[in-house]
Specification:
The complex is a heterodimer of chains A (179) and B (390).
Chain A: H1 13-16, H2 19-34, E1 57-59, H3 74-78, E2 84-90, E3 102-110, H4 119-123, E4 129-131, E5 146-147, H5 149-156, H6 165-174
Antiparallel strand pairs in A: 1-4, 2-3, 3-5
Chain B: H1 2-7, H2 11-44, H3 56-59, H4 64-70, H5 73-85, H6 96-112, E1 120-123, E2 129-132, H7 140-148, H8 151-162, H9 165-196, H10 207-212, H11 226-229, H12 231-244, H13 256-259, H14 269-294, H15 306-317, H16 325-351, H17 359-388
Antiparallel strand pairs in B: 1-2
Helix pairs in contact in B: 2-5, 2-14, 2-16, 5-14, 6-8, 6-14, 8-9, 9-12, 9-17, 12-14, 12-17, 14-16
The chains are: A alpha+beta (179), B mainly alpha (390).
């Protein structure tokens, strides 16, 4: 690379008085004075959330209303700040989805610990835990900042399910066609 | 009649009432300035700025209530109320007596300088202009310079009494800066007073005479404001005014990035607020003097003096009250206040346009540029005026 020495010109008299520059600057400031505001007035105006946003982790149900989590506890193990606590439970034999066998009895995510890394979503084999659009979690006590199972499903709602894994599995079981 | 009752009062009582009235105007304007500062800052930075605070019963007024909320009018009260009610802390390491004294001392010169500034005029029966002011003192500008430079003592006192290094550095800077720019400021106004003390008239340093000299009509020099005849004087005065009132680009005294907050680092609550009201009062009085000396005072436009406007109004509308002294007085005060507010707006625009000078640059501009320039300017005009007014 060739070194190109730049000639450093001495300042002209006009430049040394600062005045033309100040006038130029005042023109710029004036332009911005009348320009419309570019900021959002937050609580009333909400920002547009782009797809793929990683907000508060939530639990979701499949279109049949079945809770997708099977309490495998992978998310609990992978969670770097140990924000997730799962108490596994069994699905009773007479339930319509008894073939799924397991579901969480308790599912707590401590939002004071959560770092929104999204590893729980990444690791989940059931696509049951999703980081969705909510970006603002507030509470007045530590207890309030722990999302329990009911709250997680309330936040998560229902997401479309492409695989229908457990339906296929049930059908295969019934028709004797193992995979 | 109320006016007769007022005129029969003891002169001292009259003066007191007038003084309270003027303080009653200056203080809220100084408060408003802090709001305007925030609002202008926001607009320049493409933000809406403070627009939340509202008094419930004002919110019930349709449109107007919303408008007042959006321009942030009630944030003035919210800010002032906050300063009154938050803890007025007195740090353990300060020299307490002087620490408390400093903000009070800051207010005194700031409000005292107003006494010699005429802020309006009315026409008496003969059609002559009678200036309105607290004390129509002949020493006018001299009194302003003498008293306003006392303001630096409060900064020195605040910095010294705070007993910590940044306030101390700030107050040392303040004293050096204010002294250096006072010189060029004083020298820059002398041509104006050389001109208005024409041979054959009583000598005066009063500011009203300067406006009188700028109240001519179209053909002739009388109507040209001194800002046009003496642009260099006006420019030096303006720059010194920025330095004296401690505004960007000369706000090295406050300079929060290297001196934390300088002399008011240790202050809080209302004592801190007093420093700022004093600073804004200085700005208001300084802008007023600039407008009186170089901007035509209460005359609305160059070559269009107050008397012409009043005449025109009277002829157009035919209403008798337009030549009533009260109406003329209020009109002139409104025009003058309008000019002051325009100046304050200019101060704020410059603040958001120009970065702060380094301290050595401030000193260099003061001593090596402005001072020689103002001396040369003075010599030039002294010779020119001597030749013209021979």
């Amino acid at each position: 690379m060739a070194v190109v020495p730049l000639e450093r010109k001495p300042l002209t008299l006009a430049e040394r008085t600062y005045l033309p520059q100040i006038m130029q600057g005042l023109k710029t400031t004036m332009k911005h004075l009348v320009a419309p505001a570019v900021t959002l007035e937050y609580p009333e105006q909400r920002p547009v959330i782009s797809p793929g946003y990683r907000g508060v982790p939530t639990l979701v149900k499949d279109p049949n209303g079945r809770e997708k989590c099977v309490s495998c506890q992978l998310c609990e193990f992978v969670c770097p700040p140990k924000a997730i606590r799962i108490t596994p439970g069994e699905i009773p034999f007479d339930a319509p989805n008894a073939h799924v066998e397991k579901a969480p009895k308790e599912f707590d995510i401590d939002m004071l610990r959560c770092i929104y890394c999204g590893m729980c979503q990444e690791v989940c084999p059931e696509e049951a835990i999703w980081l969705q659009n909510q970006y603002s979690m507030t509470g007045l006590s530590r207890e309030e900042m722990v999302n329990n199972k009911a709250r997680l499903y309330e936040l998560g709602g229902t997401l479309p399910d492409e695989h229908r894994k457990w339906d296929k599995k049930k059908a295969a079981e019934e028709h004797g066609n193992a995979h | 009649m109320l006016s007769e009752f007022y005129l029969n009062l003891h002169p001292a009582l009259q003066g007191l009432l007038k003084g309270l009235a003027v303080i009653g105007v200056i203080f809220p304007i100084a408060g408003m300035c802090s709001m305007a500062e925030r609002k202008v800052a926001a607009w320049v930075q493409d933000r809406p700025g403070p627009n939340r605070a509202i008094v419930p019963w004002v919110a019930w007024i349709p449109f107007l209530g919303k408008f007042l909320q959006r321009i942030g009018l009630f944030h003035v009260m919210a800010d002032g109320g906050k300063m009154l009610f938050k803890e007025d802390s007195l740090p353990g390491h300060v020299k307490k007596f002087y620490f408390v004294l400093a903000p009070i001392l800051a207010m005194i010169p700031a409000l005292t300088t107003v006494t010699t500034v005429p802020f309006g005029a009315y026409l008496d029966k003969a059609g002559a202009i009678v200036p309105l002011g607290l004390g129509p003192l002949d020493m006018g500008i001299l009194a302003v310079f003498a008293v306003s430079s006392l303001g630096v003592y409060s900064l020195i006192l605040a910095g010294w009494a705070s007993n910590s290094k940044y306030p101390f550095l700030g107050s040392v800077r303040a004293s050096a800066q204010l002294i250096s720019y006072e010189l060029s400021m004083t020298l820059s106004v002398i041509p104006v007073f050389l001109w208005i003390n024409a041979p054959g008239r009583d000598g005066t340093l009063g500011l009203a005479r300067a406006v009188e000299f700028q109240s001519g009509t179209w053909p002739g020099w009388g109507g040209t404001w001194f800002g046009f005849i003496m642009p260099l004087s006006a420019f030096i005065f303006l720059v010194s005014l920025f330095a004296e009132t401690n505004r960007t680009p000369f706000d090295t005294i406050e300079s929060e990035s290297d001196l934390v907050g300088s002399f008011h680092t240790e202050y809080g609550a209302f004592k801190w607020g007093l420093f700022f009201v004093a600073e804004y009062s200085h700005m208001i009085v300084g802008s007023g003097i600039f407008m009186l000396l170089f901007g035509g005072g209460w005359n609305p436009l160059p070559w269009v003096p107050l008397a012409t406007v009043v005449d025109l109004l009277h002829q157009l509308t035919g209403w008798a009250f337009t030549i009533h002294p009260l109406f003329v007085g209020v009109l002139s005060i409104a025009i003058f206040l309008g000019k002051i507010i325009a100046m304050l707006f200019f101060f704020m625009m410059v603040r958001w346009t120009v970065p702060r000078f380094r301290y050595d640059q401030v000193m260099r501009i003061g001593w090596r540029v402005l001072l020689p320039l103002s001396i040369a300017n003075l010599l030039f005009y002294a010779i020119a005026i001597a030749l013209i007014q021979k």
